[in-house]
């Protein structure tokens, strides 16, 4: 099933190609079939894209916010009309089940375009009275902003970054992960169809080297990365050369705390969503599930039963719950963590291996896996696995749970399940994380700021907060009398 795009890149409102770039093969991870062949951007393509963005940006910034917003809203409409087709393409490229892509990918991209399209006319500065003289502030765009994406939510990441950037009057350049290059091009088509002037949303394909070239390109004012902590450190170092603005959405090892009084089925549902959705490939996953001892055994029994009822299968079948992992390499990495869990003494409750599926023998399948009796020092409790592997850890009291939950260099997300709301707020306030939930997990509406603390990130996506990361504040002092000078 081919899904070959017209060309590899999208620059200045049209597809562009340079076959001198390294070959990229996009593989359907359910079957192992190559579905598209592309080329990484050469330096000439990158320069062309930056130049197109630079040329288009001043006129865009000079438009009224509501006019910019109108185009974003139209783009959202195009995505919604094509949701079925885009979801199918995302499923082929990522392996994620169509049940998920129909609601969480292009639909989430459309949410971001609607939200920031609506906000575009409401981006304002403030007036500061000085008793005669006064200061006003202007929220000005940064210029050309670049986004570098991970492979788990390709079109969503492209839109979560470009929608606020464009709403604020910037031009945008996006590099998808080379594993999932296809839907960012469809977003570019949707923007063009909705009337976005040429050059304001460009896509360049490539491996890490292209990302690195964007992070250090002198024509780019800001870089926003969704990726792992090691890549984040490299992009930050590149951006530091000319003091670029950055947003870093990085990895995590987030805790979910389940207290004895929690609603058992909701807590299990939250933990399963927070470990298995997208075949476990979600940055904010709650992969350390701390369960208070009074509930622990019942929690594990029901968790095992519910996990074993998860249906793996053809990702395009609407009844399938879980597709394969994004690639064989990622699957093998996750299998290595599962082996480490067994070797280091964790108790395998369910899963723990690959799945054979008729007709999909070359797919990157892996079973949703639960380990119990996990201790804080085990590799599976310390490192981000980025696959469907849940670690359950027992705890006795609140103080202990909070201390253990915080004992990680990551700080992306956290969740608490309890019927005691005073405790819920008290515990959430003490957890070192940027994105948290009480009696829920992994819900990320566009209205809510999203991002991490500690090594999990810098800056926020979504919500009003994103506006601050795609503008700078200019303060303007206005004198209303003569200049009082001693000279
Ligand atoms: P990587 O960090 O490997 O890659 C992320 C992106 O950066 C890719 O486009 C990659 O290109 C590019 N890249 C790689 N090396 C460099 C470099 N030196 N300079 C600039 N760019 C570079 O992450 P994955 O794609 O494997 O995604 C998984 C990771 O992303 C996990 O750690 C996960 O937690 C995190 N993530 C964070 C989210 C958040 O919002 N906080 C959301 C989703 C995922 P290429 O792929 O071509 O190598």
TrEMBL record:
Primary enzyme class: oxidoreductase
Protein residues bound to K(+) 2: 243, 454, 457
Please give the pathway this protein is involved in: Amine and polyamine biosynthesis; betaine biosynthesis via choline pathway; betaine from betaine aldehyde: step 1/1
Q: Where does K(+) 1 bind?
A: 26-27, 93
Q: Which InterPro entries match?
A: Ald_DH/histidinol_DH (IPR016161), Ald_DH_C (IPR016163), Ald_DH_CS_CYS (IPR016160), Ald_DH_CS_GLU (IPR029510), Ald_DH_N (IPR016162), Aldehyde_DH_dom (IPR015590), BADH (IPR011264)
**Positions where Cysteine sulfenic acid (-SOH) occurs in the chain:** 283
Question: Which residues take part in binding NAD(+)?
Answer: 149-151, 175-178, 251, 283, 384
What's the catalysed reaction? Answer: betaine aldehyde + NAD(+) + H2O = glycine betaine + NADH + 2 H(+); betaine aldehyde + NADP(+) + H2O = glycine betaine + NADPH + 2 H(+)
Q: What is this protein called?
A: Betaine aldehyde dehydrogenase
Q: Give the Enzyme Commission number.
A: 1.2.1.8
Q: How is the cofactor bound?
A: Binds 2 potassium ions per subunit.
Quaternary structure, from the entry = Dimer of dimers.
- State the needed cofactors, names only: K(+)
The entry's function note states: Involved in the biosynthesis of the osmoprotectant glycine betaine. Catalyzes the irreversible oxidation of betaine aldehyde to the corresponding acid.
Q: Which Pfam families does the UniProt record give?
A: Aldedh
The Aldehyde dehydrogenase domain, residue ranges: 19-476
What keywords are annotated for this sequence in UniProt?
Metal-binding, NAD, NADP, Oxidation, Oxidoreductase, Potassium
Gene name, per UniProt, is betB
Give the residues annotated as active site: 161, 249, 283, 461
Which family does the record claim for this protein?
Belongs to the aldehyde dehydrogenase family.
Biological process terms from the Gene Ontology for this record are:
glycine betaine biosynthetic process from choline
Query: Which NCBIfam families does the UniProt entry name for this protein?
Result: BADH, PRK13252.1
